[in-house]
Amino acid sequence: MIYEAPGKVVAWGEYAVLAGAPAVVLAVDRMAQVELKPAERDWSFVSRGFLSPGVHTATSEFNPCPAARLINETLRFWGNTEYPEPFRAISDSADFYRDGQKLGIGSSAAVCVATYAALADLLDRKPDLEEAHAIHQAFQGGAGSGLDVATCWHGGVVRFVGGSANQASLPDNLYWQIIWTGRPSETPARLASFSDWRGAGPTPELDALCQSSTTLTEEPSLSALENYVESLRTLDEAAKLGIYTPEHSRLETIASTHPVVYKPCGAGGGDIGAVFSDDPQALTTFSAAAHEQGFMQLDLELAEHGVRRIDG
To answer: Looking at the structure, do residues 181 and 164 belong to the same domain, yes or no?
Structure first.
């Protein structure tokens, strides 16, 4: 059996979602695939994209190789102490990398959700989003709001708030593109810094970001998006998170000469940014200008479906 799950891009609500405000997330058409099939005598684990040496073992004990970690985590969550009947596992997240660098569009969540769904199928268990989130949290050491897992699960446009996800939509005249900065981000370090800053005293900048995210989610528009971006930069300056790297700042400068709105996505500090406009031609012009300065547009479309089995 083969399961696939899409990547994700946070349209807005990063950091705000950690304080209970809504975020809007887009499932995108880069797919992680996980194949599980019975084997005769032994177990094998192969990873593509996130490269890990292929491992074959004749023992049912959990294998410590990186390619087996999510499988191990899922089985432990279900109370298993060893592998079930022999199987071959192939995990493919090559869609989430370019020239050996991770693009920052949710590879770990997509692989986790696809792995979980495939194992549930293999063991005749009913898949459950809350279980998938709990397993992904354990895999990441307890971090994460769950928005990435929920988006991989549902697909399409997702409104995420307070741990709950609902299908949503963007206005028909709000167009978007995703730009790769060329630098991977260190998300765990930024989230840890954010948590430390938040616990140190009053956070009016975060309150303002939450209000901006709520307003933008309720009535999406370019003007509301501009207000959100201003609040995000103010938060970055107050908390010293490093969301706006030189690359993001350069892209914002390019955007200022076009009728578009640019913002970093997710934890920032690298990875990707999103540019929005009510004029698709403006996005094309911006993308050409960004390309001249060494930045790359990612050809992403909305993934209408979430995790699913694709081999019949």
So the answer is: no
* Tokens at 210, concatenated: 């939450």
Find, among 139, 136, 146, 235, the residue nearest to 194 by Cα.
235
In angstroms, rounded to a whole number, what is the distance separating the alpha carbons of residues 30 and 19? 29
pTM: 0.94
Range of the domain at 10: 2-168
Inform me whether the pLDDT recorded for 53 exceeds 80: no
288 part of a folded domain: yes
Q: pLDDT digit string (tens) for 85-98? A: 999 999 999 999 88
Residues 160 and 205 in one domain: no
Q: For residue 312, what pLDDT is reported?
A: 67
Number of domains in the chain: 2
